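To close the section, here is one more complete example, presented without commentary so you can practise reading it yourself. The ligand is magnesium ion.
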Amino acid sequence: MQQTLILLKPDAVQRRLIGEVTGRFERKGLRLAGLKFVQASRSLAESHYAVHKGKPFYESLIQFLTSGPTVAMVWEGREAVAVCRLMMGATDGAKSPPGTIRGDFSLSVQNNLIHGSDSPENAAAEIALWFESKELVSHTTTDSKWIG
Ligand code: DAT
Ligand code: MG
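Output:
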């Protein structure tokens, strides 16, 4: 079963959107495998966004991700990486269609509420960065035969 890392970034927490966004993933049929509330350190934020080091927005992005607590989650299910990216919408909230998380709740490029891994390989690396393996819980839900 594919897993992906989802972060509800500090703007989502400050704007009290944790329940709204988490509920969408639940209702989609994805299964929660890990969940925690984290004040990201600078070093965690730098590792997470290492691919963007050197870009003009990098410093501001690190400041943003460390500006308050983040909800870190692992969701699993069929095609979880691509499904979550579709549900998130485009990076720029202003260009993201209604019905997506960013399209419904964000007008910004940087303050776009949510991070989701962009490939299964990056998901594995990002999950290992944010979670210890003992923090992940393997289980089945009683409705699994209806979800597929
Ligand atoms: P995504 O979060 O959609 O995967 P990304 O990986 O390209 O987008 O960039 C990571 C984050 O960096 C993104 O969520 C917001 C910020 N960002 C990207 N491009 C930016 C830009 N041109 N100006 C300001 N922030 C930007
Ligand atoms: Mg990205």
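Once you have examined the tokens, check your reading against these statements. The longest strand covers residues 31-38. The radius of gyration is 15 Å.
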